[in-house]
Fold this protein.
Amino acid sequence: EEEVELEDLASFNNYMNQKGGMTSIQGTHQFKNMTNAKGAKVIVLDHKTGQFSTFGNTNNMGQMQVSGLHQFNNTQNSGQFVVQPRQFKLMDLAQFNNFVNKEGGNVQVTGTHAFKNIKNEKKANMVFNDHKDGQFATFGNTVNAGEMQVSGLHQFDNTQNSGQFVVQPRQFKLMDLAT
């Protein structure tokens, strides 16, 4: 019996996860506008065959956790945003076009991810962790006015800093460092 794989799944124009809400997303889905309220949680899970969801405009004020090949166009964070390594042995990870971490926002990134434009505003905090297997994130344009901490093989193209930017030694015994 042959297994049938469907390409497109659920699509949402405006999705509001309200206080107390818990949303779990896995597979190929589309979200034009995603809002996660303070006191709400969204988990975007990895998929073993590399299926991914796309997000047009994402506004996170609660807790958001992402693992996998998902794609984000415009993201604003004033809550807790964690980007984790893949759960399955596949190469590419989450991709972000425009990501803004607003005042009070906390972001942690581990693994291989891509950020085209990233902005960390005043009184916001971003941490880019080292990975035991040498996975790294790439950054096109980075603007930091808050607190940013980097450890590992991460690669930055254009960086502007008016806040606190700390580049730390690797946490694991691998050769290359942040460039």
About this structure: Residues 15 and 164 are 35 Å apart (CA to CA). DSSP finds no helices and 16 strands in the chain. The chain has a mean pLDDT of 88.
